[in-house]
Please model this.
Amino acid sequence: MNSLRGMYTIWYRDLLRVWRDKIRMVTSLAFPLLFLIVFGSGLSGTMGMLAPGVDFSKFMFPGIIAMTVLMTSFTSGVSVVWDREFGFLKEVLVAPVSRVAVAAGKTLGGATVALIQGTLILLFAPIFGVMLSPEILLKLLPVMFLVACALSAMGIFLASRIKSMEAHQAVMQLLMFPMIFLSGVFFPVNNLPPWMNILVKINPATYGVDPIRQLVLGAQPATSLGIIIFGHTMSIGDDLIVVAAFGVVMVILAMWSFSTQE
Model:
């Protein structure tokens, strides 16, 4: 019971911190919308139709949703580094709460914030000509949350091994932007040069972007733009299995990392 209460408290604290930081909430929405407006609308006429009924703006929209979830969840580990620098993490670790609960609470907190941010981006779908039915929305939310949990666990694990804010920012930039640019957010992942094709296929973020795009655009147009591995086109279920497996590994590593903290 203490572990569940501690997990809930850590989860609630991370949500409360974001809610009180209005500037962070606004800028986290402005950044992906800027990409959509500048790249999506600006290059839509030049790129033409990427699939039947799918121009570049529509293609980018689910990618931007995924990017928002990925960036928000991946950078959620900054709270761990912040708490360490101000001594709060030490107080948490000496409290009568399982360190597994601490890692789980941090992961769920980051994933919930990422889900909220991604859901807010969905509100702009009609502006970019994307129609989302209630059924699609009900399918999207758990997919987004699973992706957020996996990337949040990765961010928490990395942050638990980093000692300063400066080092955390450098590591996040070094890892996050290549993961985003090589995940298919801005371009289809088929017909790539061999070296880039390998990087895209081993990038876990790729398998988070693809199911969101398949749900938003529909199976038929999204499949022609999707991931092909050894001649097999990845379905939503295939993608989610990869994401879930990656998430389990990251959660275990995050829990192990917290259990070894002094």
In short: DSSP finds twelve helices and four strands in the chain. The CA atoms of residues 73 and 152 lie 4 Å apart. The chain has a mean pLDDT of 79.
